[in-house]
Design goal:
Distance between the termini: 24 Å
Shape: globular
Strand content: 25-35%
Number of domains: 1
CATH superfamily: 2-enoyl-CoA Hydratase, Chain A, domain 1
Strand order of the largest sheet: 1-4-5-8
CATH architecture: Alpha-Beta Complex
Largest sheet: 4 strands, parallel
CATH class: Alpha Beta
Helix content: 10-25%
């Protein structure tokens, strides 16, 4: 990201469509690049809450226009990132409502090859909005094209062009 800025990048579009998540810590590190500092996530369980704060002051991308493209398959740790962007009003979110997986589960394999999934905590955005079962609504809602045209990317480019200084 630092290299991109040094090369003169003026705006960024991130495509998180069909991104089912990934590792929480990496998602939080990426989210921290878009804000100066602050709360990134609250993990709430039956008996406690844990806050995840941005550990590095001043992210690399705090001053660039940014757009995130999402769809109903954008889930889990990707939604954590989108939650930070939404709550800090740090960029545009374009596409369809995200999946809504904001829980932490432990999976126990059984002898018959089935498994039991035990949910023990949920994730809340910095403004304490639940992700699970809710998803995150985009700022600009678009229905995916069946013709093969990438209307979400076209809208993202247009939104970034409008956000750049003239």
């Amino acid at each position: 990201m630092t290299s991109l800025k040094q090369q003169g990048v003026q705006a960024i579009a991130f495509d998180l469509r069909n991104n089912g998540g990934g590792l929480l810590q990496e998602s939080l590190e990426i989210a921290g690049e878009f804000i100066e500092s602050g709360l990134l996530l609250v993990e709430r369980s039956k008996d406690s809450e844990r806050s995840y704060d941005d550990e590095v002051e001043g992210g690399v991308l705090t001053d660039l226009p940014v757009v995130f493209i999402v769809n109903n398959y954008t889930a889990s740790a990707s939604e954590v990132l989108i939650g930070v962007i939404r709550d800090y009003e740090r960029g545009f979110i374009i596409g369809q409502k995200t999946y809504g997986k904001g829980v932490i589960q432990q999976i126990f394999g059984l002898s018959d090859q089935s498994s039991i999934h035990v949910t023990y905590a949920e994730w809340l955005t910095p403004l304490r909005h639940s992700i699970d079962g809710q998803g995150i609504e985009p700022d600009i809602a678009l229905t995916a094209s069946t013709s093969g045209a990438d209307i979400e990317l076209s809208q993202a480019i247009q939104s970034l062009q409008e956000a750049l200084p003239q």
